[in-house]
Amino acid sequence: MILLFLLGCPTLVESHCELNPHEVDDDERLAVGFTVAGALSDIAPQTVEGIDLFGEPVSVDVMLTRGEGAALFEDADAVDVVTRPGTNDVTQTTWLGPDPCQDAVEVPVVLTLVGEGVSAGGPATLRAVLGLGDAAGEAEGVRSVEYALDPAADTLPAGLGGAPVSGTVWVDYRDGAVTRLEAFAVTADGARETVIWYNAE
Q1: Three-class SS state of 125
Q2: Which of 200, 199, 195 is nearest to 118 (CA)?
Q3: Sign of dihedral through CA atoms 129, 26, 61, 112?
Q4: Element holding 36 (H helix, E strand)
Q5: Tens-digit pLDDT profile for residues 8-50
Q6: For residues 40, 45, 48 and 53, what is the CA-based torsion angle, rounded to 10 degrees?
Q7: Which pLDDT belongs to residue 123?
């Protein structure tokens, strides 16, 4: 929020990102040559060595495959909303400087986690933020997967409160490799615990 003064009259300028989501095909070229198929093509099954809540090692095989449903592209545009107090003069203009907003694409995927004391996975969403790439300029450099645990089907290492009842698994990828795997569990008594932690960076 920026206060400007124009000819003695205070002008309020509020900037925000306006999202224009729409479905895209897997082979449709988006920003910097990015495609949904390309975002998944270099992700191969891999094994990560993490730790549990008690600091004990946990080996987890991680696999990600394309799920059912269309990918959704979020075309984010920076917009200024200008208002002048005491008048009904409200204007909206497209951001004229470098765009601070980042486009993104969300892709239905299936996440699978397997290991000793670990059996979890199912439909999830991969989110790739375009323009937040690596030093080589890869548009799809940052990718994250969020998966909601199914207490009836998923098994993770036990926390202080016992077996996880619900929670979330986050997996981050860069250049096709897992850089972070974190499983949060909410136990029967309401405690929130990190029952698997892996960070390659």
Answers
A1: strand
A2: 195
A3: positive
A4: helix 36-41
A5: 456 666 677 777 788 999 999 876 677 888 878 888 899 999 9
A6: 80
A7: 96
Q: What is the structure's pLDDT at 113? A: 97
pLDDT for 107-129, tens place per residue? 999 999 999 989 999 999 998 88
Q: Kindly report the backbone phi and psi dihedral angles of residue 86, in degrees, each rounded to the nearest multiple of 5, phi listed first.
A: 90, 0
Question: Reduced to 3 DSSP states, what percent helix, strand and coil does the chain have, rounded to the nearest 5?
Answer: 5, 60, 40
Q: How many residues belong to the chain?
A: 201
Q: With the CA atoms of 41, 46, 52 and 55 taken in that order, what torsion angle do they form, in degrees rounded to the nearest 10? A: -120
Ramachandran region of residue 90, left (φ > 0), alpha (ψ -120 to 50) or beta? beta
Q: Tokens 């909601």 identify what position?
A: 148
